[in-house]
Amino acid sequence: MKDTQTSIPFMKMHGLGNDFVVIDSRGHGRVDAALAMAMADRHRGVGYDQLAEITTPPGAAADLHLTFWNSDGSQSAACGNATRCIAAWEMARRGTDALTITTDRGTLFARDAGDGMTSVNMGAPLLDWAEVPLAEAMDTLRLPIEGAPVATGMGNPHCTFFVDDVAAVDLATRGAAMEHHPLFPERTNVQFVQVIGPDQLRMRVWERGAGVTLASGSSSCAVAVAAARRGLTGRRVRIDLDGGTLDVDWRDDGVWMTGPVAYVFDGVWHG
Fold this sequence. Notes:
Blueprint: E1 7-15, E2 18-24, H1 33-40, E3 50-55, E4 64-70, E5 75-76, H2 80-94, E6 98-103, E7 106-114, E8 117-121, E9 150-153, E10 157-162, H3 171-179, E11 189-197, E12 200-207, E13 211-213, H4 217-229, E14 236-241, E15 244-251, E16 254-260, E17 262-270
């Protein structure tokens, strides 16, 4: 075992099987790309869909700051399920039912929704091509790609395809190809969605920098926005993912996402 000074305590959490390593860096060292990639290895490391680092927010207006890392060492400005998991843990630790969180996406608000559920306001969706961002000016409601997907920004880019049968989609092949489509200069998350009813969707997701995941919070928010913009659903929907169900409500103050969280175990990384 290496010197304990190099040891890094961490937590393992998941939201609907969308799993995370969480490192509380308040008073400790910073995470870098090399550490993120080493811990991501499910055979030689810990394994995760995203890594979230907690740090002290700049200023006194928020309770904590979150930075998100993908398994390939890249960063993301948003990770909805990780935000919910950490919010639930921090609210329990503080004995409160509300929390203010800063991220590279902006300031987010979380609350205890009762019955083991946690809600996070993921902010207003970004609907202009330059904000998503896309490589050139175009209508984000129907991209000039086969299948006419919708582009949405939630602090990270999303590309949403509406299909007749999500089970028939070769998610790994199509998701990997679309992640690197030239219309998305920062790559993109990719969702395939089946409309079940006016307030219910079935979604499968390929996450930028992570691959196929059982669930994705920011993707769920993007899909709810895309479906409402297309007139396929209302602004409040239930989204059934491979790992479970999230409720998403696109309100005037932002896109609220509600669902269960799970704290799995504590560990120590000896890097």
